[in-house]
Amino acid sequence: MKKFVFILAFLLTLFSASAEDITGSWKGTLNVQGTKLHLVFNIEKNDNGYSGTMDSPDQGANGIPLSSVTFENNVVTIKLKQAGIEYKGSPDGTGNIAGEFSQAGLTAKLILSKNAEKTEPALKPQEPVKPYPYNSEEVFFENKKDGIKLAGTFTYPSKKGKYPVVVLISGSGPQDRNEALMGHKPFLVLADKLTRTGIAVLRFDDRGVGKSEGNFGAATTVDFSYDAEAAIQYLKTRKEVKTSRMGLIGHSEGGLIAPITALRNKDVAFIVMLAGPGLSGREIVLMQQELIGRASGMPESEIKKNQDTNRYIFDLMKTETDQTVLVPKIEDYLRKQLTGNTDSAKISEALPAQIAQLTSPWMQYFLNYDPASTLSKLKTPVLALIGSKDLQVPAKENLAAIETALKKAGNKKYVLKELEGLNHLFQECTTGSPMEYGQIEQTMSPVVPEIIEKWIKKL
Question: What are the backbone dihedrals phi and psi of residue 38, each rounded to the nearest 5 degrees, phi first?
Answer without folding.
Answer: -85, 135
